[in-house]
Amino acid sequence: MTMQQQIEEKLQQAFAPTHLIVSNESHMHRGGAGGESHFKVVVVSELFAGERPLARHRRVHALLADAFAAGLHALALHTYTPDEWQKLAAVPVTPGCAGRNPHG
Description:
Blueprint: H1 3-15, E1 19-24, E2 38-44, H2 53-63, H3 65-69, E3 74-80, H4 82-87
Parallel strand pairs: 2-3
Antiparallel strand pairs: 1-2
């Protein structure tokens, strides 16, 4: 099972999201294509209601602790309630990595 699949499965089980995007963005960072170290995660769940973004992010990071131990380096993490998600114009774009080597 790939790192992306593991992340998706854990998020599905823990948050029962109404919307979930897990995008491998490793190609945008040092190490280049084929890596599984950088991901953008968008989770929309009723379970985030009443929580501040920091608390939501802490929950996701705790859930994925074993993935970080196995080589996951970074998440561009976006967590929303369904109401917040409806008000968004677009999913935020992840900025490029300052340390990225354009030659791989």
